[in-house]
């Protein structure tokens, strides 16, 4: 976005040169507006002087100035356009690689974590319908879901937490999570990076406890809050990922619909 804003300002430079040249030649050479504009365009484009040319010393000096500025401006505009095109291509490649990482994450861990966290959510029955994504959804439905998520309280019942189960599962996914965090492409998506850190932190919290028996209520509440943080970020990232699949990979989107973690007893079998 910054590059595009800068490009817009750079594209204004040729217009500024033409304006300055037009009014300058009007004042120095005593030309009409149209003739001065015509003369300026001839000068800036270096096509050579035809029926109109500078007749005064000041006009000739000003014409030299406009030629130099015009060439410099053209080179600046060309350089910035090429730079912007390259940056846009690189951003597209970064975004594609990042979405591939996110896809691996949900395949390897994200969907299962969502199924696990929803079992701890006492209010999940009331929101399951909101996550019934279909092939007919457009961008507006996904945006509405994301807006609803911002106001949703991701409740976690501490009494339902399966500490041992979460610990065993996250321990098997430790290498995958660390490798994802090491990938430089995640800086392109702050929400996803925050999600990974939240899950890694939850894994570390569980790993640091030698036993989950007789934990004080304060500690159980602390872990429940860590689960809640990861759950909240996970649902938002899942929504973005589903929208991306629908727009780019219909066959993967079809599979994601059939294995939707918010659906009770989902089945990958095509019916």
Structure report:
By secondary structure, the chain is mainly alpha-helical. It folds into 2 domains: 2-88, Helix Hairpins; 98-258, no CATH class. Helix content is 72%, strand content 0%. The chain is built from 9 helices and no strands. α1 (2-29) crosses α2, α5 crosses α7 and α8 (217-248) packs antiparallel against α9 (250-258). The longest helix has 64 residues, at 57-120. It is elongated, with a radius of gyration of 30 Å. The relative contact order is 0.10.
List keywords for this structure.
271 residues, mainly alpha, Helix Hairpins, 2 domains, 9 helices, 72% helix
Instruction: Report the major sheet.
Output: none
Strand content: under 5%
Topology pattern, helix = H, strand = E: HHHHHHHHH
Structural class: mainly alpha
Total of helices: 9
How far the N terminus sits from the C terminus, by CA atoms, comes to 44 Å
Percent helix range: over 70%
Low-confidence stretches: none
Number of domains: 2
Radius of gyration: 30 Å
- The averaged pLDDT comes out at 85
> Any idea what the shape is?
elongated
The strand count comes to 0
């Amino acid at each position: 976005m910054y590059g595009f804003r800068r490009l817009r300002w750079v594209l204004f430079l040729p217009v500024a040169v033409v304006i300055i040249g037009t009014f300058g030649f009007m004042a120095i050479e005593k030309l009409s507006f149209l003739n001065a504009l015509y003369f300026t365009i001839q000068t800036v484009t270096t096509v050579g002087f035809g029926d109109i040319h500078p007749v005064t010393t000041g006009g000739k000096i000003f014409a030299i100035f406009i030629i130099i500025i015009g060439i410099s401006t053209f080179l600046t505009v060309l350089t910035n356009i090429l730079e912007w095109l390259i940056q846009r291509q690189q951003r597209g490649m970064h975004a594609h690689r990042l979405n591939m990482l996110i896809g691996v994450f949900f395949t390897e861990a994200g969907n299962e974590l969502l199924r696990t966290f929803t079992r701890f959510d006492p209010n999940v029955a009331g929101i399951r319908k909101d996550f019934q994504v279909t092939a007919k959804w457009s961008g507006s439905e996904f945006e509405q879901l994301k807006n609803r998520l911002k106001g949703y309280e991701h409740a976690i019942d501490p009494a339902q937490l399966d500490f041992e189960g979460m610990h065993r599962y996250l321990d098997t996914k430790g290498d995958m999570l660390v490798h994802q965090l090491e990938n430089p492409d995640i800086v392109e998506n702050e929400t996803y990076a925050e999600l990974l850190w939240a899950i890694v932190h939850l894994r570390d919290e569980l790993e640091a406890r030698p036993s989950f028996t007789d934990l004080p209520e304060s500690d159980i509440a602390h872990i429940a809050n860590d689960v809640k943080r990861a759950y909240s970020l996970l649902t938002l990232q899942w929504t973005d990922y589903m929208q991306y699949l629908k727009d780019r990979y219909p066959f993967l989107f079809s599979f994601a619909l059939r294995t939707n973690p918010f659906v009770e007893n989902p089945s990958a079998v095509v019916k």
